[in-house]
Amino acid sequence: MNRLLKKMLCVLAAALLLLGGVGVHADETPEKVTVIYGGSSWLGHYPAWVGIEKGLFQKHGLGVLFQNFYASSGRMGSLVAGDLDVASTGSISAIALMAAGSKGFMAFGTQDSYATVEGIIAREGIKTLADLKGKRIAAPFASSAHVLVLDILEQQGLDPEKDLTLLNLKVNEMPAAMGSGEIDACAAWTPHFNKLLNMPGNHLLVNDTEFSLYKKYKLGPGPDLLVVRTEFAQKYPNTSKAFVKGYFEAVDMLINEPEECAKVLMKLTNLSMEDQMTVLNDIEWVPGDQQRALMVDPGDFVTGMQQLAEFLVKHKQIDTAPPVKEWIMESMVP
Amino acid sequence: MEINTPTKSLAISIASLVIFITVWELICRLGFIEPLFLPAPSQILSRAVKMIENGQLISHTLASTRRVMVGFMVSSMVAIPVGIFLGSSRFFMAVFDPIISLLRPLPSMSWIPLSLLWLGITETQKYSIVFMGSFAPSLLYIIEATKSIDPLLIRAARNLGASKLDVMKEVILPGSLPQIIAGLKVMLGIAWTCIISAELVAAREGLGFMIMNGKEYFQTDTVLLGMVMISITVMVIDVVFRKFERRLLPWTR
Predict the structure, then answer these.
(1) Chain A contact present for B121, CB below 8 A
(2) A18 in a structural domain
(3) Which of A288, B8, B210, B225 could form a cystine bridge with A248, CB 3.0-4.6 A?
C-alpha cells in the first residue's frame, strides 16, 4: 500500500512538476505579440533595427514595428500619448518629460556609449573654438547637440546670447546652410554628422569627448535611454521581458558580428558600407549583463543623468531637476 | 434673451470667460487631466509672470509682431493695387485667374523649402512665409471688393465725363475700400497663423519659436502661453486697425 501510495505520489509530483513547468512556460508567453517601437536612423536605434531584420524578436514570439520619428521629443510625446510601446530616446527629452512630471513612461536601460559621432563642425577659417566669437552657429534646440554647444561655449567663456548667433536648425537642413555659407559652424550627430564632415572645407572642431560631464563621468551630452510606456510594461510584463531579451541579443550581435549588422543597417541609415562600419566602430555597446550596474546598483548612469538634469537647470533649459531614479523600472532591467 | 445695451453684452462676455477659466482650472486642479496634456490657467499665468520678469515674453511677442506686420504690409501693398487692377479688368483677370487659383490653396508651410533655397535662413525668409501665406487670399478679397462696385455707378461717372483715373479715384476706391479693409482685417488674423511656419526654421525668438521650443521641452504651459499671446496680440492689433479704419473711412461710421 505504502509502495503504491509512494508510486502514486511520485506520479502526482511528476505531473505537478510537468504542469508547473508548462505553467512557467505559459506564464512567459507574451501577452501581446506586437510591439510598436519608436526610432530613427540614429545609432541608438541600431539594436531594434537589427533585432527586427535578423528575426531576434520573432524568436521570442514578438513582431516589432519600427516607427520613424525625426526627434526624440516627438517620439516621447507619442510614447506617453499611448501610440508607442517602447522607444530609445535622447536623455534630454526624457529628462524634460520627467521635469514635466509625466509618469507615463519609465526607463530600463542604456544601450550605447559614443563620443565621436556627434560634435561641432566648422567651415574653413574657424580653426579654434575661440574663433566662434561673432559667428553664426546652428544646433537643433533641445537636443544633445544643443547641450554640447552650450557647454563648450561656457567652457570658452562665450555667451550664446551676446558673443555669437546661435540658431535653431534641424540637422537635415545643416548641409545646405553650411554649403551656402549662411552658418559658420553647426552641431550635429550621425549620420548627418558624417555627411557634413565629408563636405569640402568642413572640419571637426570638437566632439563629445570635450563635453564637461564626459570628462568627469564619461557621459555624453545626450546619452541614449531605453524607455517603455508604464501602462504597457504593467499590462504586458512577459511581452516587455521578451522585448528586452530580443533587444539585448541584438546588442550582442552588434558587438560580435558588426559587419553582418552593417549590411542591414545601411537600409536604415543610407550610409555606405565604409561609413556604416566607421560609425559602428565608434560605438561602445553596453550588453545586457552590464545594465543592472548602470541603472540600479550602483547606478552610475542614473547618477550621470541626474548631473545632466542639473546641467539643464543651470542652462535654463528646464525649471527643476527631476529625481531621475524614480523613473527607473527595475523589473525590466536585465 | 435680448441684449439691449453694450454694457450688458460686455458683462455677459466677461462672465462667460470667467466661467470658462474657472471650469478649466477646476478640471486641472481636481486631477481629471494631467498637466502635461493641459496645464491649469494658474500655471500658465505663473509661466507668464516668470517670462515677463526675464523679458523673454516681450521680446518673443515683439519679434513675431515685427515679422507678421512686415510680411502682411508688403503683402497688402502688392495685393491692393494688383487686386483693384484685376478686379476692374476682365481680360487681365482671365489671364491671372488660373495662377491665383493655383496659389490660393497652398498653406504657408509648403513655402518653407523653396523660401529656404531662395532666401536662406534670413529674416527675409520669415517675412516671405507670412507674405506667401497672406498674399493670395488678400488678393482675392480685394478683387471681389472691386468687382462688387455697381457697374451703373461706373457707367454714370463715365457718362458725366470722368476719365478712367477719375473713376478709379472717385468711384471704385471709395466704394470698395470698406470691403477691402474688412478683408484685410480677416487677413491680418490669417497672417498670424503663418507665424509658426515662419519661425519653424532657424529662429531664436518669436512666439512661434516659443511654442515649438516649449513643445520640445514638454513645457505645455509655455506652448499655451504662446498661443494666448498670439490671440491677445491679434486682438490689440484689431483694435488699432478699427481706429485706423474709422479715420480712413469716416462715411462708414
Answers:
(1) yes
(2) no
(3) A288
With respect to residue A161, please indicate whether it lies within any of the assigned structural domains: yes
Query: Is B25 part of a structural domain of the chain?
Result: no
Q: How far apart are CA A295 and CA A108, in angstroms?
A: 7
Q: Is beta strand A136-139 parallel, antiparallel or unpaired with respect to A185-189?
A: parallel
Give the domain extent around B217: 53-252
Regarding whether A126 and A81 lie in a shared domain, the answer is no
Angle at CA of residue B206, ends B202 and B211, nearest 5°:
90
Cα separation of B209 and A155, whole Å? 27
What distance in Å separates residue A100's CA from the closest CA in chain B? Answer: 6
Q: How many domains are there within chain B? A: 1
Cα separation of A297 and A273, whole Å? 38
Which one, of A70, A73, A69, lies nearest residue A94 by Cα?
A: A73
What are the C-alpha distances in Å from A279 to residues A139, A205, A218? Answer: 21, 18, 19
Identify the domain boundary among A199, A217, A235: A217
The answer to whether position B180 is within a domain reads: yes
A1: helix, coil or strand?
Answer: coil
Number of structural domains (chain A) is: 2
Contacts of B244 (CB under 8 A, 6+ apart): none
**Quick one: cell of A13?**
509530483
pLDDT in tens, A260-274: 999 999 999 998 999
Judged by DSSP in three states, A108 sits in: strand
Q: Is residue A7 part of a domain?
A: no
Chain A residues touching B218 at Cβ < 8 A? 73, 76-77, 93, 96-97, 99-100, 102
Q: DSSP alpha helices (H): ranges in chain A?
A: 2-28, 46-53, 56-59, 72-81, 91-99, 144-156, 174-179, 192-198, 212-217, 230-235, 237-256, 258-269, 273-281, 291-295, 300-314
Residues in contact with A16: Cβ distance below 8 Å, sequence separation at least 6, in sequence order: none
Contact B168, B107 (CB under 8 A): no
DSSP state, A215? H
Q: Are residues A98 and A38 in the same domain?
A: yes
Q: Which residues of A touch B40 (CB under 8 A)?
A: none
SS3 at position A205: strand
Last residue of a domain, one of A182, A217, A252: A217
Q: B38 to chain A: nearest residue by CA?
A: A100
Nearest beta carbon to residue A102 from set B34, B120, B201: B34
The distance from CA B219 to its chain's CA centroid, rounded to whole angstroms, is: 26
Which of B34, B122, B213 is closest, CB to CB, to A142? B213
Residue-by-residue pLDDT tens, chain B, 253 positions: 566 677 888 899 999 999 999 999 999 999 999 889 999 999 999 999 999 999 999 999 999 999 999 999 999 999 999 999 999 888 999 999 999 999 989 999 999 989 988 898 889 999 999 999 999 999 999 999 999 888 899 889 989 988 888 988 889 888 888 889 888 888 898 899 898 889 988 888 999 999 999 998 999 999 999 999 999 999 999 898 888 888 887 776 6
